[in-house]
Amino acid sequence: MIAIDWGSSSLRAWRLDANGAAVDTRRADLGALGHGAATPALLADALQGWDDTELLLCGMVGARGGWSDAPYLPCPATPGALAQALQEVPTQGTALQGRRARIVPGVRGGSQALPDVMRGEETQIVGLLSQCPDAAQVCLPGTHSKWVSLQAGAIASVHTAMTGESYALYRQHSMLARSMPPTSEPEAFDADAFAAGVRRSGEPGGLLHHLFGVRTLGLFDRLGPAQAPAYLSGLLIGHEVRAQLPLRAPVHLIGGPTLGARYRQAFDLLGIDSHLHGEDLAACGLFHLTR
Amino acid sequence: MIAIDWGSSSLRAWRLDANGAAVDTRRADLGALGHGAATPALLADALQGWDDTELLLCGMVGARGGWSDAPYLPCPATPGALAQALQEVPTQGTALQGRRARIVPGVRGGSQALPDVMRGEETQIVGLLSQCPDAAQVCLPGTHSKWVSLQAGAIASVHTAMTGESYALYRQHSMLARSMPPTSEPEAFDADAFAAGVRRSGEPGGLLHHLFGVRTLGLFDRLGPAQAPAYLSGLLIGHEVRAQLPLRAPVHLIGGPTLGARYRQAFDLLGIDSHLHGEDLAACGLFHLTR
Lengths: 291, 291
Description:
The structure is a homodimer.
Chain A: E1 2-6, E2 11-16, E3 22-28, H1 39-46, E4 54-58, E5 73-74, H2 79-84, E6 87-89, E7 100-103, E8 107-110, E9 115-118, H3 121-131, E10 137-140, E11 145-151, E12 154-161, H4 163-173, H5 191-200, H6 207-219, H7 228-242, E13 251-254, H8 257-269, E14 274-277, H9 281-289
Parallel strand pairs in A: 1-4, 4-7, 5-8, 10-13, 13-14
Antiparallel strand pairs in A: 1-2, 2-3, 6-7, 8-9, 10-11, 11-12
Helix pairs in contact in A: 3-9, 4-7, 5-7, 5-8, 6-7, 7-8
């Protein structure tokens, strides 16, 4: 089978053998939204040479504006319920003719009055549960970080924080960017400045006030331009994590190595035990949803 | 005399009689920064036809990159100390020759480790103190909102929140903008949506999480596109004000009518007594600094 995690900015695909082991992997800078009827042809291109008939997809490919809108499954959502709710997309008359394509639905948490959602992360969590059935607290950092509570092997709640996107906004478009090197230059990560930002996030005054400190610390030479991006990152991640306290440790972190290391550092500073898992849990989750 | 409040995006000038009454006013979309040696000529242009010899300026005109860098006065700062610290700028050989130009210094608060600053707002506060000597708590909403505590007629502390700039960033550049009408269209203010945002800001989860609600509320048709900007504004202003609690009421608000009305609504929702003052307090403050 072919496992595909197709998000809003990139596509990752794994060719899996009958035991779920990846025999090949691919990655493309191709977002899942806005292609309309051209979607199957784009996907066939991305999978060229892989002739497996079984395709299972997760992520924004199932969102409004993606290939086919797969309605959200409400919490609590078990891996079994997700497997039951796989949505088949017709491929006849398309570049994918002769193959079966199914999309994993997203999951909806929050309250009726204030819903929260995820698409793609639920599949990584299925992968996590197959390896750590007792996992209770998951953090998936990113543009829109997801915090997920698990209860008795089911996704019990979803909670999103706009941390990564906020970092990019302040880093690139705000007055704070003037205190930092141009984003075109390669950026070294300053772990001490990051830690100072995480510590600052625990003081009174609120995020909107703490952010202005990036400017005044620069103005009075307390923070160099090269340190300012890491300090900003520490402020935002610190606020994100503290808003989740108290947490049920260990927190299972699912993410790439760079962001994973930053969050581990923040957890360490806050005295929270955490385990880092790679993003390949998506392939593992897609495989388990077909069992 | 001529009183001038010259900030980073606009210049406002008042021609005052011997009693401090404005006999004429002007406004120009002319920022104070980055003009270098051309500054006196630009100012002479803006004041054309006003032949008074006495010029008193406040705002970013005294910042690094402005006409002349006027060092910050530390807290606690009294109106008398500000008057003593007026910084004269030589005008000989410039388009302002024969006139005396002085700049009000900014004020620096915060701690040694984490300074905070303002430029221009201190002069509005001098104007406020001349009318309300007992004022204790001041809020000056804007791109960078300033919160100032007064003690015994002196500026005791300065605290900045990046509320207005954050609103503009999320409104124009974030994923949330997709849930809202284009910024090119005229925008009606929805007081109910604003109030919902202010209430939401008091719930657990933190600002980075509350912001994502703008997206999910739109996704599930709980918030229309036309209401979303006011909800976002309420979220941000709610977080700003709550981070200041407990406040010493009445809070003296200094600002234009639009933003002033929003903050008054937020204060009303939080049960805080407030008084709104107009931005002409700058002219009043400049007059008092020459007494």
